[in-house]
Amino acid sequence: xxxxxxxxxxxxxxxxxxxxxxxxxxxxxxxxxxxxxxxxxxxxxxxxxxxxxxxxxxxxxxxxxxxxxxxxxxxxxxxxxxxxxxxxxxxxxxxxxxxxxxxxxxxxxxxxxxxxxxxxxxxxxxxxxxxxxxxxxxxxxxxxxxxxxxxxxxxxxxxxxxxxxxxxxxxxxxxxxxxxxxxxxxxxxxxxxxxxxxxxxxxxxxxxxxxxxxxxxxxxxxxxxxxxxxxxxxxxxxxxxxxxxxxxxxxxxxxxxxxxxxxxxxxxxxxxxxxxxxxxxxxxxxxxxxxxxxxxxxxxxxxxxxxxxxxxxxxxxxxxxxxxxxxxxxxxxxxxxxxxxx
Length: 342
Ligand code: NAD
Ligand code: WQD
Fold this sequence. Notes:
Helix content is 40%, strand content 16%. The protein is an alpha/beta fold. Helix 3 (65-74) runs parallel beside helix 5 (97-117). The structure holds nicotinamide-adenine-dinucleotide (NAD) and UDP-4-deoxy-4-formamido-beta-L-arabinopyranose. UDP-4-deoxy-4-formamido-beta-L-arabinopyranose is lined by residues 88, 90, 128, 130, 154, 183, 202-204, 207, 219-222, 233, 235, 276, 299, 302.
């Protein structure tokens, strides 16, 4: 039997490129679609160097319905889709809400239309812990109530989950898994692929590594007066390779029909909460490099603390994040050094 073909949308991006590697390593045939709005096709070189295989790649916008239909007509052998493609900058989504609703929802709807017509194609969707807002109970479980989104970006993830769920309810031969990522960080151990934010990084770890390497003068730590042990916010930082591996498990679950419901939802985190100051200490200790930082005001919209209850994913998927915080941070640092010294 031939290799199973998986469409990875957004596959030249951060999480998509790491997932392409894990899929190829597990014997899948990967075809990537990306419009390169937030990534570069250079990541394909990295994937090829790591795996020895260059994934097929087509550049187009998934919001273009005619192109999506043409694509699936041409590639009738696609068994499943991992839909990473989306715009993901929280602050930008507040300034440009329509861009976010257009891009994140239209791309999804176009794929669901194809699946509706051919339900043997299953879907893994990139959701986010942002849907939980500030949970009342920690660690947060998948059945925790969804809270009103604090940004249009967050709202697109809530609405997307609903759209998938309702579409499947109307066509029960369809199936999908939504994965709610906590905070993905780090890079592939080879440092050949990694996170490449365009412009000034909004997320903590790329800002830390860019400060440590001298590209930024100072990291601002947003608040030390939260109700947490050291006063800084707490998150669940998960190694992107652990996250990528969970996608392979989810794809196999769908392809092998091991899913228990047609729509399933899993938290993907480590189960460990780490504060901003703890992460900085861990960075300095594991790399031996000091980070120039200053405590400043809280960042509006930040959640005080959130980390995942991973039991459901651990038990049902048989998957568990393996990397330690130190390993994860070191991989981010190695990527930064490798990329800047190219
Ligand atoms: P990324 O920006 O690196 O990758 C997304 C890719 O999608 C980019 O390469 C971009 O060019 C592409 N893309 C965007 N719109 C497109 C369109 N209309 N047509 C074709 N390609 C398009 O982001 P990432 O960090 O790899 O995130 C992947 C997914 O995971 C996103 O859906 C994101 O919302 C979600 N997510 C990310 C995080 C995180 O912290 N990185 C956390 C939770 C969820
Ligand atoms: C982590 C912590 C900051 C930068 C965002 C999205 C969320 C999800 C992941 C997609 C916070 C602090 C940060 C800095 C800092 N994405 N920080 N100085 O906010 O948990 O989540 O990315 O779904 O939806 O909201 O991640 O990396 O921005 O921040 O002190 O320069 O680091 O306050 O406590 P966040 P982050």
